[in-house]
Amino acid sequence: DVQLLESGGALVLPGGSLRLSCGVSGFSFSSYAMSWVRQAPGKGLVWVSGVTSGGDTTYYADSVKGRFTISRDNSKNTLYLQMNGLRAEDTAVYYCAKDKDKSYSLDFIRLDSWGQGTLVIVSS
Amino acid sequence: DIQMTQSPSSLSASVGDRVTITCQASQDITKFLNWYQQKPGKAPKLLIYDTSNLETGVPSRFSGSGSGTDFTFTISSLQPEDIATYYCQQYDKLPVTFGPGTTVDIK
What we know:
The complex is a heterodimer. Chain A is mainly beta. Chain A is 0% helix and 48% strand. In chain A, β5 (45-51) and β6 form a beta hairpin. Chain A is globular, with a radius of gyration of 13 Å. Chain B is globular and about 35 Å long. The N and C termini of chain B lie far apart (36 Å). In chain B, a hairpin with a 3-residue loop joins β5 and β6 (53-54). At the A-B interface, β5 and β10 of A face β4, β5 and β10 of B.
């Protein structure tokens, strides 16, 4: 079975940093692009960032560009999201999600498996 | 960025009713449109990809259609377990964007 498990969510002060991790199993991690999607309390889904299967290409929503960094370690089957300069508006549940099909690009983002999410709260 | 809108924002229907949700993109996205279901406290689940393709294991009462800028998601016969929020998502251009969601409940 495909499994994704996020960790690293916490309460953090504005301006602080946090690194989220997403450990996966049940599929060939190095063959799939991956994404982070967040959901603020009571709000809708917002795609935050994506990374190609090889980790060579990344893309960010404007709201996090320059503050967040997505990366992956294919040898550890783990996806990361380094979040710096956190703001109150970054408060959300953060999901990692897997693309439906094997690909070397971010051209076909159809997210067929999701983790359970990890909660990030940015507050003083 | 491509903006996605959905209507209605919420609806209430009876078991067995046909339910239709529309999704509109701010520009032509051809058929690069997916639909997700999210139940309270749970992660989203991919139901339909590429406008009309049913994800494996998803009941056939769910369907999708459309192209260009206008898309439709249908539940042919609403079941109690379909209570959820439904989101459309385009992937024609990065960044991927989601619609604001449509909450479906039972009348």
